[in-house]
Amino acid sequence: MKKIGITCYPSVGGSGVIATELGMLLAERGNEVHFITSSLPFRLNHIHPRIFFHEVELSHYPVFQYPPYDLALAAKMAEVINREKLDILHVHYAMPHAISALLARDIADHKVKIVTTLHGTDITVLAIDDIFKNMITHAIHQSDAVTAVSNHLAAHTKQMLNVKQNIHVIYNFVNEQEYYPKPLLSIKEQYGIKPTEKVIAHISNFRKVKRLPDIIRTFDLIHKQTDSKLLLIGDGPECGTAMELVQDLGIEQNVLFLGKQKNVNDLLRISDLKLLLSEKESFGLVLLEAMACGVPCIGTNVGGIPEVIDHEKTGFLVDLAAIEQAASYAIQLLTDRELWKSFSNHAIKRVKDHFHSTHIVEQYEQLYDQLLSTP
Ligand code: GMT
């Protein structure tokens, strides 16, 4: 039994989902897991005798212009390392979590190993700024082990930050108990979608990199040829622009803005196709969630997406901004039942064969064991 601390962003988002699911599986496998986060991780939805939550609290002293969250996190980490005698502190995101973990390791009396998992955003966005670039590089070099969620992210990090040390690639996974195909016609009906209408889904945090206009314009082309509805699931800075575009194209009746949703598995189960046309994406966990529910995906040939979608077998890859190509593939899939069935079956199989939670959690545990066997 190992004692593992986990820090992540506890709100909605792929990295938080992975960190939380990993923690729950590690506990199932007999380990003791301590979440050290600003609030209860949103996917931490059941109690377990070996899962503990340590909240990072911020004191608002009038002398501080900004509350020092990263320092409060480091202090809490050091406290938990010492009191619980943690073996491993696994942080998701180099910035700021690995930095706080390094400080905590220096402060704590008990010896702990730090594992940092890179999810993409800190590398692709923050590393562009030189101040943070040095800090992220420091966090990577000083961690006892670093993992990345795709080969693309590992290679990109090494090249961009001139990192020499090994970055272990450990793919993301889905919770198979929650993501599996299930016919749910009643939900379709509740949303006013006819049984014969095709459902196309997009899930994201509506940031610019997700290119919502490409999703909407692709749907507009699909809709002209196939009776269909677009589900836009999530919220974020580009929501207003997306709503305006939907109005300009006159497709308000066919695009449903559903906002942030917890049970995306049920929404995926009523979907026939998933679109992710991002300009940056280190992995695309939402693709895996869709594939596990038997939903074929169309994604851009960008970042880690080609490591998830098997082109012409589980879905299609298109160049960035190639909306005509995306629409043409979509129409091909949605109008050929045999082809769709084959893609759907292959998608389910691909998730089982390459991204099974047991297999992925084993890889993390092997890495922990390797670290703990070295002084
Ligand atoms: O995509 C985002 O903006 C959210 C971000 C996150 O922190 O959850 O997603 C990143 O991590 C996910 C889990 O590993 C990956 O599936 C996403 O591809 C990655 N996002 C980017 O690289 C833009």
Automatic annotation (TrEMBL):
Highest taxon of the lineage: Bacteria
Molecular function per GO: glycosyltransferase activity
Domain Glycosyl transferase family: 187-350
Residue ranges annotated for the Glycosyltransferase subfamily 4-like N-terminal domain, each copy included: 12-177
One record GO biological process: bacillithiol biosynthetic process
NCBIfam families: thiol_BshA
PANTHER family: GLYCOSYLTRANSFERASE, N-ACETYL-ALPHA-D-GLUCOSAMINYL L-MALATE SYNTHASE
Protein's name in the database: N-acetyl-alpha-D-glucosaminyl L-malate synthase
Lineage: Bacteria, Bacillati, Bacillota, Bacilli, Bacillales
